[in-house]
Structures are given as structure tokens and as C-alpha cells.
Amino acid sequence: MKLSSPASCLFIFLLLCLPFATVQAQEQKRETPDSIRISLLTCASGEEIYSLFGHTAIRYENYTRGIDAVFNYGIFNFNAPNFILRFALGETDYQLGANNYERFAAEYYYLERDVWQQELNLTPQEKEKLIALLQENYRPENRVYRYNFFYDNCATRPRDLIEKSIEGTLEYADNMTDTNTGTSFRDLLHKYSEGHPWSRFGMDLCMGSQADKIINRRLMMFVPFYVQEYFNKARIIDKEGQTRPLVLNEEKIVITGSGETDRVSEGFTPMQAALLLFILIAAITIYGIRRRKTFWGIDLVLFFAAGVAGYILAFLALFSQHPAVSPNYLLFVFHPFHLFCLPCMLNKVRKRKRSRYMLANFIVLTLFILLWLVIPQRFPLAVLPLALCLLIRSASNLILTYNKI
Predict the structure, then answer these.
(1) Which of 197, 272, 395, 404 has the fewest Cβ atoms surrounding its Cβ within 10 A?
(2) Per-residue b/e over 300-316, b at no fewer than 16 CB within 10 Å?
(3) What would the DSSP string read from start to end of 158-226?
(4) What is the pTM of this model?
């Protein structure tokens, strides 16, 4: 079939324009902004003990489908049966939760906790993989996990999931496995419990000598703020060897106006309470020695309290799955024998007879205080006046029965 001249020109023009139109369509498709954005959220510290160290979550935005959701691994039920016992045993179950972003932001604004957002520089394929991993984790049979404060928590889970979704390797700016940080678990507990002396004191009592070992940077990432810090400096090296920053940008998306200065502690501290108790016990003991009075009621209260504390510390050291609670050298001061031997010891004290238990306790506490600086565990300073209270009560019995040997 022979085409007319105008038709031939039109046909040739379309043939020439078709490849150009195809290329232009492909380029336009490549230039179209990704409709999915995934970000890491870091939440400021709260006032409750479980929120002192902040929180981490993953935000998933899909502009095409109108999705703006937050996934976080910090959901727990405080009213669950035996929650306190299970927490002490290290058998607490947390779960992955999903929430609307607006509700999430409103909650943290109400709690006066700022939130930072780090947009992740992931490829569409990496985003799809991360979303698939989140969806898989959110399945009812998968969403519950055994929580571990130092090794498997609301900060380490998002970190591990993001690392797993990357096609290539994630390289941090610092060596994450070297133990040249000069930082221990206890140092981090102290850092983020600033302004909460009673919470810090309780944690110090429960944490054993393992909490004082120097840890590497990766272990430090159990604290959400370290995940935030190390992510800012990390870069992705893809399979072709090309590098790109892990974080595209960071911004504060929930601003409450609440700062660290608002969280300064006021009130009676453990050290002040321990010193006051020591002064009272010392004064009563000196008066009792002069008047040849035993004041055995003080021994009852003091050794009973020390025995209860000892049972708790011994329980944690022997049965808890929590890391860093054993060995705990505070068991030389607070131990179950105070409670177990209390009836026999009080019977001796009331009859003004020398108690072998008081003698043994005097020797152990004297050695503990003398060796305070060389024992491989950092003790809260408030323990010293408490130990001295037990020491002088034992000394009182020895002094009052000295002439009866």
C-alpha cells in the first residue's frame, strides 16, 4: 500500500517521536518522588522509671494510601498477672504495637516528652522489605517477645529490623565492638536517672558487679538516644560499593517546651535519709551504752529491714534472668541471714548475752567497709551509713556484754 506524502510524513514523525516519548515517560517515572517515607522516632525521657531512658519507634507514612502509622516495641500490660514477680525474674513479655501517628504525637505532647524524627535514606526495595518485616512482626503470633532491658528492648528491636532491611551493609562512624568506651551499664543508668535519686538508688542496689564492666558502643544502644546518635553518623554501603547516609534529615516533630531543667529533683535523697538514720542510731546506741540499755527494739526493726532487702537481692542474684544482677557484693551487708537469725539474735540481746551472730556481723561489715574501694563493684554512697548502722548495733552488743565474757 502506497502512502500519500502527508501521511508518510506523519508516520515518520510518530516513529521518531515514539522512542523520545518512551524515554521521557521513564525519566518522569524515575523523578516522581517516592510515596513512602520511613523514619525513626526518638522520644524524650519521662518521669516514670520505665520511661527515664526514652523510647524508640518507627514511623511509616504512605502518601498514596493515606497511611501514617507508628510501630513501637514498648507495649506492656502493668496489670498482667504477676507482673512485678515476672519482671523481677526477667520474664516480662512486651509486644509490638501499631498506632495512628496523630494519636501517638498527642500522647507524647500530653506527657511533655519531645519527639525527634530521623527520615531514613532507604531505597524503595529496602522500604518494602522493612514494611514486610514490620507486618510479619505484627502478626498476632509474632508480636509478643521476651523483653530484656539491656539486650532486647524497644530500641534494639527497631535498630535490628532496620539493619536487616538494608541491601548491603550499614557502617557506623565508630567501632561498635571495641570496649574502649570507658562506659558501663551502671554509668548509663546513672546518666539517665539524673534527678531521680530514689530510682537510681533502687537500681544500684539491684545491679551487681557485672553492671560495672565496660561495654562496647553497640551494647550502649539499649538506650534510644544512642541509637539516634549513631544512626545520624551511619552510612549505607550498597552491593555496588556506593555509599549514602542512613539518615536524610532530622527534625523535632513534637515540641513541648519541656527541658531537662524542668526535671531537677527536689526533696529527701537516699543519702540524706541514710545519714539521718545513722545519726539517730548512733546517738541512741551511745546513750544505751552509757545507760547499759540494749534498746533491742531498734535491732528488731533494723535487722528485719536489712533481712528483707537481703532476700530481695538474693532472689534476684539466684533466680532472675536479668543480666548484671549477679554477683552482687551488697549481699555482705543486706542478706537473708539477718531475717533467718533474728529470733535467736534478739533472744541473746534481750538477755544481755553476747550474740555470736552480732560478732560475725561486726567482723563482716568491718571488712566490707575497709575493702570498700577494692571490691569490684560500685556501691551507692548511701549504703555506707546504712552499713554503719548495722555495724554499731553489733558493736553495742559486744560492748555491753564485754564484762560477761
Answers:
(1) 404
(2) bebbebbbebbbebbeb
(3) HHHHHHHH-SEEEE-SS-SS---S--BHHHHHHHHTTT-HHHHHHHHHH--GGGGSB--HHHHTTSHHH
(4) 0.85
- Residue 250 C-alpha cell reads as 532530622
Q: What amino acid is encoded at 397 in this protein?
A: N
Distance CA 195, CA 123 (A): 42
As given in the structure block, the three cell numbers for residue 237 are 554501603
Q: In what order do the strands lie in the sheet with 243-245?
A: 168-171, 235-238, 243-245
Virtual torsion, Cα 270, 275, 278, 283, nearest 10 deg: -150
CA torsion sign, 165 to 169 to 171 to 175? positive
Tens of pLDDT along 191-204? 999 989 999 999 99
DSSP category for residue 282: H
Determine the 3-state secondary structure of 60 from DSSP. Answer: strand
In the chain, the amino acid numbered 218 is R
Cβ(309)–Cβ(205) below 8 Å: yes
Q: Summarize pLDDT for 76-116 with one digit per residue, the tens.
A: 877 777 777 777 778 888 999 999 999 999 999 999 999 99
